[in-house]
Amino acid sequence: MLVTPPRARPQSRAWAVVVAVLALLLVSLSCARPASAAVPGDAWVRAAHLVPGLGAMEVTARPAAGGDPVVLAASAAYGDVAPYQRLTPGDYTVELRPAGAALTTTPVLSSTFSATSGAAYTLAGLGSLQSPRLATLQDDLTPPAPGTVSVRLLPAASSAAAVTVQAANGPVLAQDAVFGQPTRYASVPAGKWTLQASAEGLAAASTDVDLTAGGIYTLAVVDRDGGLGVQVVTDAAGAATMPVGGAQTGGGGTASGGVGSTSWVPGREVAAGLAAFLVVGGLGLLARRRATVSHAS
Q1: Kindly report the CA angle at 281 between 15 and 269, in degrees rounded to 5?
Q2: Are the C-beta atoms of 234 and 169 separated by less than 8 Å?
Q3: pTM for this structure?
């Protein structure tokens, strides 16, 4: 007697479709980039207000190619260093206006700069109230040698024509740095230090810092309570050397904040795990159904 093999059941075909769809979902999830990942080719830019006596400023970068200006700091007071922001490479006009002023008003200061892919910049208002200027500082985020950090100084205290910063019982970070003239990055042993800032005719100021190995830092020396103050700004931390920090001080203490390089997206991993579970389970069920059909034949 001729026995006709049974046809595949509709449930089996349906499971095959489900498995195929879930497999595609798993592939797409595994290839997706996290929502906050850095766009390849972006530049990193931040603003710093280091002009003593100048009020709170809004700092914007206007693309030369057209489009809306990018607000780098909405209301930066003296001593503030804003967190880094991603900026599309190209030419820009940087403008400083009193906080809250319309963008159509004449800026207090303006300058042009070119943002290069992968580079990091600090757009700093420097100098005295009588002679302020905008400077484009390129931030060197090259990873320092093991066990060390990279440190530079931004002398922004109008009460000091030149300032020296030294770690107690440790290295000199900057010697006679001239007001308004940023220093180069220097290599310094990592660790906990008491930094002392001194200038002729002024009492020395000290601050305790913890400079983590692999970090890159900027020290801003500012006017504070009739003397000097030292603010520590983290430019980058660890081997990744992605820009991370800023200080918003308003002439007072320091605070940190910044932009992360890549954020973990919980839903992405959960969905990928669920898809994998369903794919494996679906394949197992489909195999069992096929085994049953084969046995029946």
Answers
A1: 110
A2: no
A3: 0.69
